[in-house]
Amino acid sequence: MVTEAMIEDPSGELPSEEIAADDIGGGFIPVPRPQVAGVEIDGEEVLLEEGTRNIHWLNQIGSVVWASYDGSTLDQIARELSDIFGADPDLVKSDVLELTRQIGRVGLLEGVAAEIRPQPTGPEGLSPGTLIPDFELPDLEGRTVTLKDFRGEQLLLVNWSPRCGFCDRIVPDLADLQSELREQGVRLLLLAIGSAEDNRLQLEGHGLGSTVLLQDDIDVNIFQNIGTPAAYLVDADGQIASEIAVGALDVPVLARKAAGGDGIASDEG
Amino acid sequence: MTSEERLSKVRWTGGATYRVLSYYFSLQWNRTKIGRYLHRVLEDFSVPPDPGERRSPPTPGMPSAYRLVDFGPSTSGRYSLLYPEAPLITSDHVSDILEHLFWHVNSEAIRRTGDFLLVHAGAVVTPSGSGILLPGDSGAGKTTLVAGLLRAGFGYLSDEAGAIDPVTGRLYPYPKALTLKKHPADLFPGLPLNGQGGLVRGVWHVRADDIRPGATVGPSDVRFIVAPRYQVGASTELIPLGRAEGVAELARSTLNLSTYRSRALPLLARVVRGADCYRLVSGDVDGAVRALAQLTSSG
What we know:
A: elongated, B: alpha+beta
């Protein structure tokens, strides 16, 4: 077991804080994260981080390196591998270092900061802190708008359909909150399917004046097929700043929170 | 009139019971035309109702109940889908209601099916009995490709999810009506339509047996894993993948990964060990069908 070897090795000090993958050197002792499960097929390893969609496959060399993480330093591993394969020690060391950095970058090693946050499974949506990929979508007037146009503003980003009964049900809630949202500097941005006309009619009917972008033919995949309504708060830098809220109950709760309320539904409704 | 009063006046004209994977549900309606359409789409999942089932007190394992009601032309919010008492959706357009119902059934079927491992994939069987999994996200062209393969004589398992049995590693049918987003007659001239279009805007529900009688088949072993990618104008190309990449591709497309967690890997590896893996890039369905027919007949 990798972890047992780690504990018994007197020189093996686990880093107390995460290091960047680029800082991995020959003295580094790689330890796979405990929640990473793997399966080998045709000499190649497929790895899955439990509870996420963080899935990777390693080629044969990568798989040999992965299998050699036994509590030794990378220098020791490289020496051992170059003995086994009779290969140039310097070449093997640079391969081992580079592969280990790559494995660290995708979040599979203890003590190494992941550069790509794994996507969770199930309806949890993207994790807070995820930078939303930029997109270009038409607004109701047919103008092309990009996400970057809203940098510097906080957003309540809502996955929307004018033909969804649950969306229809929360229009009055959102309309009630719009002035408070504005005061807090939060822009309500609907990523809608359906026609411009259907969306306009629905919002005008309730006096809801939000920005609507139409994603009919372009799947920006921020909501990962979670359905409507669903919402995230997005900070001024374009990063997700809340857990995803899903459904006619939770989306207004998130909106109230963004508007400065306590996020608890009042009894007045 | 309150909605309870309105509902108490509804006369139910028909209903049926269905089982989609592990999801057991009943449907009731008060308009024969809508009921006929619904039953046509869901017919392949029809099961006889249990005569001993009681709502009060409820029999354990009794079906989830949907009721689709039309309150009549002069009513605002004319159509409603109840589940079982509260409305899931209310609309003036029956299209919205049906679209929501089909979405709900599919989501519940996937959510409640913990026994099969479900891969977001088309699933077909070659004329000689080899299973093909076609994993891909929405928009990858799964349904169109599956429809083309059925016309070419392949057997139908699903256009939405490949259901892998963890005991045998075999691929089981989830033979839902194919959800085509283009008019079937544009895709396949000469296809008899039997009135599937019309009730849901922009979507055509076509049963596999209407594309080719007898198209739906039984469980099969997976011999090929082909990840399709539709690209406008691309010439058809089959690119071999390593088996590890094939496992990773299937794991990424697993719909119930949060249920299966790391148990998914050994099962997928077992499936992939018996299969050849490819990526299929194509700009036209006929070219893609020819490439797959050629690939699978030579194996």
